[in-house]
Hints:
- The chain is α/β, with parallel strands linked by helices.
- It is built from seven helices and eleven strands.
- The strands form three sheets. A seven-stranded mixed β-sheet has the order 5-2-1-6-7-11-10. Strands 3-4 form a two-stranded antiparallel ribbon. A two-stranded parallel sheet has the order 8-9.
- Strand 3 and strand 4 form a beta hairpin.
- The relative contact order is 0.18.
Amino acid sequence: MDNTPIKFLNSIISLNIGILLFDDVELLDFAGPCEVFCIANVVVAVDKSNVTPFRVFTIADKSPTIRTRACLRVLPDFGLDNCPNIDLLLVPGGPGVRREMENEKLIDWIIRVAKLHRRVASVCTGALLLGRAGLLKGRQATTHVSALDELAQLCPDTIVVGKQRVVESGPILTAAGVSSGIDLGLYLVGYYLNGEIRRLVAERMEYGLP
């Protein structure tokens, strides 16, 4: 591994990242970007002790546990009503998305978070929840290849983009299917920190950058 000193920005941000969970969520959709943020914190700590750029926590409209599509159970950190301030909301996908699209409490909560001028990102079919919340109107967006037509039908005012792993449109970011969540995480590391840290994180993960 290259041990060249890291060139940081003048100041290191400290960002609250809230990850929304629900039953039948796709595990890698949130575990992938979560791992990226974790390793970014480790990389930054090499030269900047006691600095944590990304504070990641999970949120759910259910307790005490969430059952992922992979049958692993996850204990969310917070509920919708008691979570800390969110700078970036990450919405994963999975089979449970279709059920949660009818969860008015959850949809209203996503809308409220977005109205606080926070950035909102989705992975895979999580884009359908953003569409249901009206956040994709007039924007470009992507999702899992199998759900591109569904997203276009749900959001006729959205420019649906295929064959692109990460799409940024204003404060909204959408990633394509499953492993694209890792690309999203790396994109955000480059955006909030710098390209060198992004490269080092990808190197530690043995993940090829495009």
